[in-house]
């Protein structure tokens, strides 16, 4: 029999839960809760109910600020990070989930994008272990064809120009941990179409320079063409440029 709570009863339960969550919990209590939940398998119906409840929940600006502040202060142990990595390993998002993630990323304000770019540039050198994990993850995505991103208009125009000039090429070609926009096997040349918006962020030019240097050290010539030039159609013969770039390498 389904129990129906009155509005007053629900309000009391919510107030009680708020008081409970505001009270600091001991390490012993948190450990017990973690052990009790560890390995718990939820049914599809249970997960659906939790998801539905989460979608209906409206967070106040104050609550979002508290959650964000708490997440920034949280430092996961190596064991916890390993568990999270293992749980996410091989996880495949549905097309609907990927569309939601993409829409959320596109809706970020320029201020937020700039902050993320600055934070990434200040992160410091990446360890060999982390680079290896990133490479393995990238190879896994390439194997199941999930590394392809939606092509931008300049990239589609660039592909059309290459076809018109009779140049054989591959799109979104993986090289180590990078996925380049275009690769011309006949000249071992990489073509990157640079959008003015993304490549104007602080630190982005330094990242591009490091990427170019690494690709050249592997024997690839690199051509970077601004998106505005591609869209204008004022591109000289690509094959000639590729030959000249390869001679420099």
Describe this structure in words.
With about 250 residues, the protein is α+β, with helices and mostly antiparallel strands. It has a domain at about 155-249: VSR Endonuclease (Endonuclease, Chain A). It has helices at about 5-20, 25-35, 45-55, 60-75, 80-90, 95-105, 110-120, 130-145, 155-165, 205-215, 225-230, 240-249; strands at about 170-175, 180-185, 190-195, 220-225. The longest helix has 16 residues, at about 5-20.
- Give the overall form: elongated
Residue share in β-strands: 5-15%
Helix content: 55-70%
CATH topology of the domain at 153-248: Endonuclease, Chain A
> What would you call the structural class?
alpha+beta
For CATH, the homologous superfamily of the domain at 153-248 is named as VSR Endonuclease
| Counted beta strands | 4
**Oligomer status:** single chain
Most strands sheet: 4 strands, mixed
Characteristics:
4 strands, four-stranded mixed sheet, elongated, single chain, alpha+beta, 249 residues, Endonuclease, Chain A
Topology, element by element:
Blueprint: H1 7-22, H2 27-37, H3 44-56, H4 61-73, H5 78-88, H6 95-106, H7 110-121, H8 128-143, H9 153-164, E1 170-175, E2 178-184, E3 189-194, H10 204-217, E4 221-226, H11 227-232, H12 238-248
Parallel strand pairs: 3-4
Antiparallel strand pairs: 1-2, 2-3
């Amino acid at each position: 029999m389904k129990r129906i709570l009155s509005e007053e009863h629900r309000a009391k339960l919510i107030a009680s839960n708020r008081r409970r969550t505001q009270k600091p919990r001991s390490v012993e209590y948190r450990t017990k809760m973690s052990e009790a939940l560890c390995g718990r398998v939820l049914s599809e119906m249970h997960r659906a109910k939790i998801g539905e409840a989460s979608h209906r929940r409206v967070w106040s600006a104050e609550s979002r600020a508290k959650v964000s502040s708490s997440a920034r202060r949280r430092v996961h142990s190596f064991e916890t990070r390993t568990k999270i990595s293992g749980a996410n390993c091989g996880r495949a998002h549905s097309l609907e989930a990927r569309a939601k993630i993409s829409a959320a990323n596109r809706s970020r304000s320029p201020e937020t994008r700039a902050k993320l770019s600055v934070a990434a540039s200040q992160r410091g050198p990446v360890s060999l272990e982390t680079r290896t994990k990133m490479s393995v993850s990238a190879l896994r995505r390439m194997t199941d064809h999930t590394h392809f991103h939606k092509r931008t208009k300049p990239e589609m125009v660039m592909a059309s120009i290459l076809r018109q000039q009779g140049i054989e090429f591959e799109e979104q070609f993986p090289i180590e941990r990078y996925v380049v926009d275009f690769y011309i096997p006949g000249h071992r040349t990489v073509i990157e179409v640079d959008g003015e918006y993304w490549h104007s962020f602080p630190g982005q030019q330094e990242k591009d320079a490091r990427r170019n240097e690494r690709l050249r050290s592997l024997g690839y010539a690199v051509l970077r063409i601004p998106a505005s030039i591609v869209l204008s159609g004022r591109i000289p013969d690509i094959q000639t440029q590729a030959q000249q770039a390869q001679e420099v390498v």
